[in-house]
Amino acid sequence: MSEQKQINFTIVADDRGTEPRTYANFCAVAHTPFDFTLTFCEVLPLSEQDIRDAETNHVVRAPVRARIVVPVQFVPTLINVLQEHLKLIAESPGGPGWEKGPVH
User: Fold this and answer.
1) 2 to 5, 6, 8, 30: CA distances (angstroms)
2) Distances (CA, A) of 19 to 16, 22, 41, 100
3) How far apart are CA 49 and CA 38, in angstroms?
4) Which residues have CB under 8 Å from 95's CB, separation 6+?
5) What residue ranges in 3-94 does DSSP mark as E strands?
6) Which residues pair with 40 in a beta bridge?
7) Contact 52, 40 (CB under 8 A)
8) What are residue 55's phi and psi, to 5 degrees?
9) CA–CA dist 36, 30 (Å, integer)
10) Residue 60 burial (C-beta neighbours within 10 Å; 0-12, 13-18, 19+)
11) Could you say which DSSP state residue 58 is in?
């Protein structure tokens, strides 16, 4: 019989790759019982035509920059880490002074 060992380790991002940094200022969330899909888009300033179309159709199309699918079990940890980082930013000297409440 083989013995099982417990190994403690830390996962870090390998920044040696050539993956470009991608900007997004909108995220749509969808889910199934098994995973969450985060669709990141870049909402650009609207042209006059975009505004007229939005008034008619009530839709603004934004280019998808990334679509990330994560297992449901991953989401609570992601939420906690984002909240921790947001708290650090908010409490830093000269922090953004955001109003409380969700941003839509």
Assistant:
1) 9, 13, 19, 42
2) 9, 9, 18, 34
3) 28
4) 89
5) 26-31, 35-41, 64-71
6) 27, 66
7) no
8) -65, -35
9) 6
10) middle
11) S
> What residue has token string 């899909």?
37
Residue with tokens 């035509």: 49
- Are the C-beta atoms of 46 and 54 separated by less than 8 Å? yes
Mean pLDDT by 10 residues, the chain (104 residues): 85 82 95 98 93 92 95 97 92 68 54
Round to whole Å and give the CA distance between 85 and 87: 5
pTM of the model: 0.73
Q: Which two tokens stand for residue 32?
A: 């199934």
102 φ, ψ (degrees, to nearest 5): -70, 155
